[in-house]
């Protein structure tokens, strides 16, 4: 039980820190930072795939792993689309 409380505490603190950091970023830097976060989401996808595909895990862990794969892939694809759109703005006509 104490492990769960510790993990939830770290999760909530990470949410607050992440929110504060993101809200302080000026709009001109948001897209390059989003591009960099795609690498982190890629790592999340790999970890979630490992958890979702592990046979010995309980159904809840596999379900949460599948949900993590879906959400991280949405983030990765969205980040690449935004980055592609930004780079297209700087092309010569």
How does this structure look, described?
By secondary structure, the protein is mainly alpha-helical. The chain has a domain of 64 residues. The chain contains three helices and no strands. The longest helix is centred in the C-terminal third of the chain and has 31 residues. The radius of gyration is 17 Å and the shape is flat. The protein starts with a helix and ends with a helix.
* Structural class determined from secondary elements: mainly alpha
Percent in strands = under 5%
| Number of helices, counting only DSSP H or I runs of 4 residues or more | 3
List low-pLDDT spans: none
| Helix proportion range | over 70%
Order of helices and strands: HHH
Q: pLDDT average, as an integer?
A: 80
Distance between the termini: 61 Å
Radius of gyration: 17 Å
């Amino acid at each position: 039980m104490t492990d769960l409380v510790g993990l939830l505490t770290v999760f909530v603190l990470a949410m607050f820190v992440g929110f504060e950091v993101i809200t302080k970023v000026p709009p001109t830097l948001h897209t390059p930072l989003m591009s960099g976060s795609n690498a982190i989401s890629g790592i999340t996808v790999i970890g979630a795939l490992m958890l979702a595909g592990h046979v010995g895990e309980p159904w809840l862990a596999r379900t949460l792993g599948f949900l993590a794969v879906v959400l991280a892939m949405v983030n990765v694809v969205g980040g690449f689309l935004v980055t592609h759109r930004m780079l297209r703005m700087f092309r010569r006509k």
